[in-house]
Amino acid sequence: MTTSISLHQWLSFLTLLERRKNEACREQNGDTNNNFVKKKEAVQLEYIETAVSVALLLVQSLIGSTSSLDAQQITIDNFTIVIDDTGDAKLLLLLLNLEENPENENLQRIVESVSHLEFTPSIRNDSSAHAGGERQQSDNHVLREVGTVLHQLFCRAIKPPIVSIDNVSSPDDGDSDEDHKDDIEQPGAEKGRTKHSLRVAQKMLRKASISSFDEHLLSYGVPRNLCRLIVDLIRWEGENEETKFRSIEEVAEELIQIISKPNLFLYDSEATGSTGQLSFGSTLYGRRNEATSFLRAATLVSLDMIETHSKQLVLVEGLSGAGKSHFVASLIRSSSEFGWIYIHAKFDPQSQPLSVVTSAFNRFFMNILANRSEQEYVARVISSLQRNLSSSAIVSLCRLLPSTRILFPSVLRRVVSDEDLSAQSGVVVDDEFASGSQMSRRRLHFLFQKLINAVCSDQRRLALFFDDLQWADDRCMELLSALMMERDHLQELDDDDNDDTHCLFVGSFRSNETNDNLLSHFDNFEQSASVNVTKVELGGLTKVESNNMISEVLRLPTRLTSPLNEVVQRKTTGNPFHIITFMHSLVKDSILNYSLSDHRWVWDIEAVKSTSIDKTVLDLLARKFALLPDNSMDALKVLSCLGPKVDDALMKHLYTSPESRNEFIACLDLAVGENILEKNGDSAYSFVHDMLKQLAYAVMSEEEKGKNHFWIGMQLIAHGNAETDEFNATNFSIVDQINAAKSCGVTEEALHIKFAELNLRAGKISIDVSDFQCAFSYMKAGVSFLKGWQNGQYYDLSLQLHESAALVSYINTDIGLMQSYLKILFENAKCFEDRLHGYLVMIQSMISVQKQGDAMRKIIFILEELGESISIDVNHKDAYEEVASTKSLLDGRSVEDVINGKRMTDKKLRWTLKFLNLLCHVLYPASKPQALCMTACRVVKLSVEHGFCSDSAEGLQIYGFGVWNFSNDVEECLKWNRGAKRLVESLGAKHMIPRVTMNLNTASYWNEPLQAKIESLKETHRELVMVGDKDNLLLNGVHFVRRSLLCGRNLLTAERECAALLNEIHQLRQMNGLLPMISNHLSILKLIGSNYDSEQQLNEPLFHLLGNSEIKCQDGLLEHALSNGLNGFAQHCYFDRLLHAFWSKNYEEAAHYAEKYSECHQFRHFPDMFQTFYLGITALENEDAGKKALSKYQTWVKHSDWNWENKMLLLEAESHACEGELEMAKSKFHASIDSAQRHRFVHEEGLASELLGMLYEENGNKEEAIQQYSHARSCYQKWGAFALADRLYKSTAN
């Protein structure tokens, strides 16, 4: 329900309410109290805020009027206020019995309850026609009368002074009698208002000073922008055609702008513009559609779309100055209240790209740790990292991000240095020798994946912004690709906090500075099923958007700034940075000024039009630089040689005396005043835009650049604590500055050796964090400083630089460059031992290109040079005797004796063990088990004689497997596999721990539950990634999937795990690892029962991973193995065929593949146990084969009843059934079912039930058969083998 009162009456109430509030303030504070003045101003402002809202309603009522507007009808008495009293009986009663002098509370209720205004003009008969000119004049008169009413509204019902002046027709006014002939009142006109009085008022208004009118309005507390609006409405004649009001709609638009941003347009601030400087602030202008697209992607991150495993990527492109960084930062800042975290990595042409990323994360952790309110969040991050990273991985993370060290003090204390590998032997062991480029990068990606998983969650979402991607290198683009497109393969399947879909990835780049490599990565993002790409293109601002920007900066309505904007828009094409730069230049040239008398910004529009913006904004900025004092320009040049920010700590290193430092800071502060620099906090400076930094650097000659870089480097050497043992960020800055100086032709030859040493240290640290491109640049620079091979005092430096340069060249897949460094090394090395690091790199490169034969021959040659003669042509008898003699040598020795015994310190022997182990790695895939055992036994014998070291561990483990193979001595095998792990742990050989753990897991099925090692295999997988052990990563993956399949793990889970590992191996480009994994995956899919219509549809997505390979199906896998002599892989294929045939109840086919499997047998493997079991079940009609299988299981069950009891009982049940001993058979079947259930082998529980059902059916007991078949189907379904459940249902349907 609504009630109406006149606007005049409502206004009297509003004025009365204001007066009473002022009286109350006076009574409380007294006349002279300053506090009263402030309160009076607040009351006045409250009046204005209410009045301006009603003013907008008034104008909107005119716009919505159905009748044509007549200026004479627009008076305050023709407007009605509509009060909304719905549900408010008290207000309704008040309005029905309206008093002349209501109480304050009632006044407030009336004033605040305005719903809308109605324009109710008086009815008048006016049939006169209006010509076009008359109509235009009428519109102007309408606007003037609107201004008059608004004046009354804001000035407490007082009419404009010019209109209400009496006796305006004095002779001095120059009016003739003709001016008075129409002095009659017009119908509907305000009393006393005549045509003559209007003309006189208009004439007087033209003569009056606008400033006096402003002062009149200001005396009523009317803000200046409202003053201008009223004045411009009333004083329409002679007004600037570009800024005058043309329609009532424009008045409404201006009021809306004033109301929507009162801090800019309603509240006057004396400080605004008084400094004579423009402040563009951090507001984002325009970009509504672009922001909507960006926020839509952010919303998808917020919606917990975890099941899709899709990552959200926003790519923001635009020309330089389009405001890409500002656009992203503004939107993320607006989301910070919802728990968003923001990490900003801005690439720079003069910074190492990966260091930009690590620095961004370092800053994030430093800020979080400094905030006490974030302690709970920090604890959660620590907990997540400790759950998902091992101690050695945490150490690697702390090396990568030094700010995280404070998070893990106990871990860092516990992880000791590898004393065995360095101090004792002098051999520098770097696990990168065992890693290819892809493996090393995968390790780096793994660390960042875990880091992001820990940092973000459903409560704290992360926006990770890679800014200016046109300057990122391939390594950083691969990192970004990995974070979005590489899954955290195994752990993602069952770890709640391993979800990085809570991260919004954002990348920006200059659209005119892209390259093919960058565009290729973008194409990959768009084609990836795991990435949703949102493209945002930032062009120039539209006229409306740029006008809003200029309007808000000048705090003037858009109507007034429109003429200025027209010129600025034309000259800058709407580029935000160009607009800002041009506007500042107008201020600098005094074309745009803040008028203290007018209290607003003013400009000479003709001067603006004649001001040229140079062909490029860089020319404009160069002109700006040219006006700076020389010392300020010199300071900017120094700043341009440094990173993105310069803080107080760095300035203290560069300018050691307070005087020089203060002078430098004064120069920077001057640049801040010129909008060239911005100050972050108290003491950090950065360029406002990277274009400014580029320009400051570009204005220098090559020689001047070199001198500045060199001076910075030398100052940091002298004062930056560069001599500390820890190679920190300052050291990297030194190296980067010195190298940049040399590239510009400036250096100091007397210090070249020191510079080479610094580059070597920087390169080694870069290798440690897998930044191999930076590592190569440092090693290359170090070699160049040497100016040729150095002997004598600097021989070791030359040796290490060339070794390391060859290593990183190999890892970066530049084999030609690797060979050139190795050639220099081999030609200049003093002795054979000094060539060994080079040989290690050479052999690894041979293995990486599948030249195992060449690698094997080179290893044998090296071992001979080291005094170790070895043969790979070994028969079974020789291998058996070698294993037996080694066993006798170890008899009587405990693991404690080995751990606490003598250490191998001889450098030559250490190298011998290293190459013997490398030979083992080549022999294993070459299917030479006898030579493998002989080589491992030689490692053990040398260790027993000369002392144990970390390289002894693998020899002990392979020897253990040899004892198991040749003598069936399980306990000896387990003893030395466990002992090897304890040995490397005691020596701190962290890069060896995952490898020996994997070997131990392989042997553990003898006496540990098969299901128990699944989590250990996952952890080992992560550790192998961290140490870069690619070969063993593949073996561990195959073993993990095989054990998951055979231990009864749910097949749907096993399938997802296998698919994840397949994806990882494919990314590592390891075809030899893909082949067995594809075979495993096909076996799982067939048991599950795929929905593919044909075998081709099943094969196609898997074999597509092999690229252009001729292998297109499962038969092709076996043919490939047989034709290439891959005996081990052929055995793998036969087992997968055996597995499928057995569970499909094709026993004849299963028996065939079981025999084929045996024919390939050379070394005992985990699947052997199941081959024996399957063969025993399928071949029990062959009494000898069945008894043989049963006999083996009766022996094996002594090692683990958990793993083997149910299988032994099932073999016994089948044996009794074949003998016709039905009751004994039933008893054993039930015992097998119970055992399988207790030990969680659901698949074998189903198998035993199915076989028991067959026994019942064969003997006519259909009811019991049906019960067992039903239980078997239930077990198969729990296992996820829906194909088996369907087969059983169909075969027993009748």
What does this structure look like?
The chain is mainly α. 62% of the residues lie in helices and 5% in strands. The strands form four sheets. A five-stranded parallel beta sheet has the order 5-6-7-4-8, with helices on both faces. Strands 1-2-3 form a three-stranded antiparallel beta sheet. A two-stranded antiparallel sheet has the order 9-10. Strand 9 and strand 10 (600-603) form a beta hairpin. The longest helix has 30 residues, at 34-63. The model is unreliable at 125-133, 163-194, 203-209, 414-435 and 492-498 (pLDDT under 50). Residues 284-486 form the Orc1-like AAA ATPase domain. Residues 178-192 have a biased composition (Basic and acidic residues).
Give short descriptive properties of this protein.
1294 residues, globular, mainly alpha, TPR-like_helical_dom_sf, Hybrid_Histidine_Kinase, three-stranded antiparallel beta sheet, P-loop_NTPase, five-stranded parallel beta sheet, 58 helices, AAA ATPase, single chain
Q: Describe the largest sheet.
A: 5 strands, parallel
Overall pLDDT level: 82
User: Count of DSSP E strands?
Assistant: 12
Structural class: mainly alpha
What share of residues is helical? 55-70%
- Going across the biggest sheet, name each strand in turn: 5-6-7-4-8
Note poorly predicted spans.
125-133, 163-194, 203-209, 414-435, 492-498
State Rg: 43 Å
Oligomer: single chain
Assign an overall shape.
globular
Terminal CA distance reads: 77 Å
Total number of helices:
58
Give the amount of beta strand, in percent.
5-15%
In short:
By secondary structure, this protein is mostly helical. The chain contains 58 helices and twelve strands.
